[in-house]
Write the structure tokens for this entry.
Amino acid sequence: MTAAPYEPGRVRALLARRRPGFGEPIFRIVVLLAALTVLATIIGLVVTMTVESRRGIAHNGWSFLWTSTWDQVRQVFGALPFVYGTVMTSVTALALAMLVGVGVALFLVELAPAWVARPVGFMVEMLAAIPSVVFGLWGIFILAPWLQQHVELPLHQRLGWLPFFSTYPTTAVGNFAAIVVLAIMVLPTVAAVSRDVIAAVPRSQREAALALGATRWEMMRLGVLPYARSGILGAGILGLARGVGETMAVTMVIGNSPTITLSLFKQGYTMASVIANEFTEATTALYRSTLIEIGLLLLVITLLINVGARLLVWRVTGGQPSGGALQ
Amino acid sequence: MAQDPSAPAAVTEQQAIPLVRGVAFGEQEAPRVSQAATRLDVANLHAYYGARPALRDVSLTVWPNSVTAIIGPSGCGKSTFIRCLNRLHEVTPGARVEGRVLLDGDDIYGAGVDPVVVRQRVGMVFQRPNPFPTMSIFDNAVAGLKLAGIRNRELLREVAERSLRRAALWDEVKDKLHAAGGALSGGQQQRLCIARAIAVEPEVVLMDEPASSLDPMSTLKIEELMRELATSFTIVIVTHNMQQAARVSDYTAFLLAGEERVGELIEYGPTARIFTNPRDPRTEQYITGRFG
């Protein structure tokens, strides 16, 4: 095959004919608008919620944050039981989900052969796709009664001296059921993100550990987990964010009683649940405004958790984005 | 006439070069880590990735207290070969090995041999420095000891200092032992990896192109280090740099992959002989830069 004769300057002439056109400014405006939309939504949300909750804020005062009476008739409102319920259930559920989730991730990446890892990984992701009302329904009719009989009762009988298990589990619904359901719902997020993070740990790290005479497990402890820790923490943040905001399933299994208790077998309440349960009956302006105030508080707490978690990641990684940056 | 060290002729050649060169180096500040020299006998080694063979029938003896260089063009199976010497090849999914590798007479592929134990006796330094980035320099140096459950602080400090000194890194890091291992320069990281490898007192140290990602100054340091380390360890180094092989090694093995891309041992012998008087025309072609 003979090439066409070389014609100097032809490519240069073609390139010189290029005109910038309108594409550039239009593209810039479109992406700027997209960015502004997000910003406007967040600001609009916070501003309107603050405005709408003004009446509640004025009436309830700062003590709203640390009192625990919730009486619509006498118009006395305290949010502490809801804040406690939200934080306690989501943090405990996250701890459970992290234990199982990181274990699942390590198994899928390090131990399972491909023909097991693929379907199991897929099922873990499917878990995230199940609507939360289905989890709630399953939780209230099947899981909670089962837990009551086979977990809560034995725990109470054997370890009843611990404050967490001190009350007799009279009802199936309660904090414990809520925590377990939440943990199951948070698990796919934690497991899937951790799996990706662990799979991204370079082979050189694994081999470094193996070459020192590490066993399989020691290799994970030495070469894999430290490298992946910031990413695994990130998985936890995502999980916590889901846990804190989860409404439907928790409302169905937590029992909806505004009490602050260490006992996992008593009933509780969360901020998201009280809003979902009571907004239809909030007939007075003050009541309604107070529920919006709770919503605002939930927003602030979510924000604080995110900031705190980011600080934690930053502290653990010593300011570096991740272990990977050092390679 | 390939694979001469496994043939009787090799013995005479080997006698021509003093076996324990390090003794002539004079007093070393660091104590001898392992006095008993260890030899490796590789017999009829075949390596595969799945169904695809990567190495065919390699037999050679790695002499104690020497530096043995494995040279050859890209894709000839150099790295695969040394990864068979500490059972790291089999970590790659689907990879497998046939043949025998005798570590002072014991087959590391024998029934019931724990690869973990093999890797404690045969250490490795990799092509790209791979310190544990979240660990301090100190913890990196003694990672192998901590792994084995050694918690004695006195001992850990002693071993860390000794290993870092032997790796010619101590003076540069002694004031920042608790800084992250990843914060060092590439050359320092590689010396840290060498310190980490020798801290567990292996008998053999494998180095897979240890200087290929480093600048010339660091390369020089690593090469000096290899000579020094050969006084107490048996060293096998893979390199694509023939000058490097000529500079640091006592013995050189030339691997080459033919048409079907399976690596074979073409020639093995004392480095001086391989580079001045190769017996196989392919070796001569390679060392004179005519291919590869």
Observations:
- The domain at 59-317 of chain A is CATH 1.10.3720.10 (MetI-like fold).
- The first strand of chain A starts at residue 70 and ends at 71.
- The mean pLDDT of chain A is 88.
